[in-house]
Amino acid sequence: MELYRIGIVRERKRVLRELGVESGGVKIMAEKMQTLWIKIRRLRTPAANILKQDALSIGADLAVPSGVITCETEYVDALLIATRAQLRTLARKERAQPFGLKRLAGELEGFLNEPGEPVKIMGVLNANEDSFYAGSRFLGEAAVERIEAMIGEGAAIIDIGGVSSRPGSEPVSAEEELERVRPICEALERSGLTEKALFSIDSYTPAVVEYALQKGFGLINDITGATDERIIALAKAYQARLCIMHMQGTPQTMQLDPHYEDVTAEVDAFFTERIEACEAAGLSRDQLILDVGIGFGKTLEHNLELLRNHANFLRHGCELLIGASRKSMIDRIIPTPTEARLPGTLAIHLKAVENGATIVRCHDVAEHRQALAVWEAIGL
């Protein structure tokens, strides 16, 4: 008799198929292969008691503080532990329960979302002299040559910005920003490159965004999280995709004293509010991309927590973007100059992809293409 442990979900599915299990059975068993841990904040105590019993009845569990059974406090935090199959069943059960559990059921179902898109590489090009990584700065014909090279290396998306958003960077006028990106946009229009990749404008300035969309760009990358309704309206008018990033403060203030009670919960609540605003304006969730904003108003610990909990944001039903290329969090883990941070970048991005990211924003396209190809070959 021989035994060995099967470590990853894809391999488990392969073994089931080799055993001759029919496809419907493989799908059912796959739901039992992954255990989810879901933190629930401010759950009404009567609801916690009901949820606890319902979870236990199907083989799941709910960790709650002592005193819940006697309702000593009005609200509690709890930790739900369930397989995907159990979570699906539990959500159905809670739809018939009081104390806010019907609404909770809908929230729980969101955690069953999985990435529905292949992983895509977004290459970065900065049309300014102030970006934190000099290797991303290109102007004029050199910019077009760099874009052609990134597409050849495997970039499906090219992100172009005329203003630096590094901590402490100075804002520029809309006119100056437009003058920086205009020559590149015009050169791209002449070259026909906008037919070979999806082009993204890294801006929150309506005039700049509209100019880029007129020149064939199809994605707005807004570090302010689309808090300006004019940006949402432009996405609607041009049928463009919109990336909503979370940032605490502004590039000038964001790293002075970042503070959160619960960074994952607060970023998640921000996304919920912005998605609702976008949907109210006529955008669909498949047009939206979410970016937790690594390094934008976060300490190292905030960044690490968001990366560990990255799969949480899949529940919104939107694609997730990760952008930590050569950022200073790497230097805070192990002192490293910007030019030498590629290994740390790859480690962060591969972990984020493992946790649901399908768009990787980076400076080093060829190296990411190789790393992702090897990662995909190993499997999940």
Automatic annotation (TrEMBL):
SUPFAM superfamilies membership: Dihydropteroate synthetase-like (SSF51717)
Known cofactor(s): Mg(2+)
Keywords: Folate biosynthesis, Magnesium, Metal-binding, Transferase
Gene3D superfamilies membership: Dihydropteroate synthase-like (3.20.20.20)
Pathway: Cofactor biosynthesis; tetrahydrofolate biosynthesis; 7,8-dihydrofolate from 2-amino-4-hydroxy-6-hydroxymethyl-7,8-dihydropteridine diphosphate and 4-aminobenzoate: step 1/2
EC annotation from Swiss-Prot or TrEMBL: 2.5.1.15
Protein name: dihydropteroate synthase
Species the sequence originates in: Nitratifractor salsuginis (strain DSM 16511 / JCM 12458 / E9I37-1)
